[in-house]
Amino acid sequence: MNVRLYNELQKAVEHIGPEWKMQNNFDDRRSRFIYSVNTYDEVVEQSETLGVDTRYALHRWYNYKTFKECERLFAVYGAVRERNSTHHSIDFYILGEHFDLKLTVYPAKLSYHPYDLTTRGGKNRMIQWLYEHQSQDGRKHLDNRLFIVCDGGSSYESLRLKSDFERIEQGIKKYMEYVKLHGFNYVDITDNDIIYSVVSDIIYIKSDN
Q: What does pTM read for this prediction?
């Protein structure tokens, strides 16, 4: 694990909190610097210099850095990264199959009607829900996707779990071992009355709480 990165991310998660204003193109353009900085202090300094909402920039930076570390861990266990780092719907390949990776927290909207993510049926129902409720902007797609779902029992703990790389690494390792033995999971997704068959799965990261 990259200890330096982990420590910087913990500084960020203490200040951003689980809630943040809706992501938008205007603030995204003004906070593009998050892709080229590596520390908490750099994010804060750049935000203040450019007049960007610091919590917004920290949240984006935290999400980006945790995502990139998860992507790296998949490569450690055999995934092949897509050469085009800006590809719309492909981050890497597993056994020749292409995937987009989504690192997320357990949706608050499902807290009163949770899916049991320890079962195949529960995972497939949540996968369908996640596809159906994805953002409708330029990132929307109905292609193969892997979800890492962090469930800490509270909004803050779920957010913190996104940087618990030791726990996430174990989940990725188990998933990679599983697909090599048993193959991929297929799910039918309905969009505008059209049914799409996608290769998708959930790596469930749950705290001990």
A: 0.93
